[in-house]
């Protein structure tokens, strides 16, 4: 079976990763070492299945004003963006709102709404809010580094717990298909399609 992705000129095949194999995903620059990847072997172009299947448009709870659009590369002259979710730079795929200068890594856009972490007895929930209490410098309860008030975090909603952590400390899980497609009125072709 062959596939076509809007970010790449050649057809892709779905490859089941064998134990010991490792590839770098072109969409998020993270390693893929389990499940399947979309591959163009001649270009050594690889995509996680979830990065390849990521919706072109997404209605994201962190930015309700506008749909976020999947861009194959950064829209900024510098060639990179700063993720509004985790604060780290990115230079590959992003979900962006050009009007509001919102940019998200694909894995950050699909972070699970709640996770369990062995360092805390309760489930923790994602917060897209900034924790802007003036003068309060919170640090992450897992890595102890500062929590930026501008970025997302996971927190325990129990009032007796003062537990807040970086998103990237809480989980590396990605939940593809978490949010509904928010395509504009005309019918959008799927991002990956069979040929
Ligand atoms: Zn990826
Ligand atoms: Zn290629
Ligand atoms: Zn991010
Ligand atoms: Zn916007
Ligand atoms: Zn942390
Ligand atoms: Zn708790």
Automatic annotation (TrEMBL):
Keywords linked to the UniProt accession: Repeat
UniProt xrefs under Pfam families: C1_2
Superkingdom per UniProt: Eukaryota
Protein name (record): DC1 domain-containing protein
InterPro entries in the record: C1-like_sf, DC1
UniProt entry tagged with the keyword Thylakoid: no
Organism taxonomic ancestry: Eukaryota, Viridiplantae, Streptophyta, Embryophyta, Tracheophyta
Boundaries of every DC1 domain copy: 6-51, 61-109, 119-170
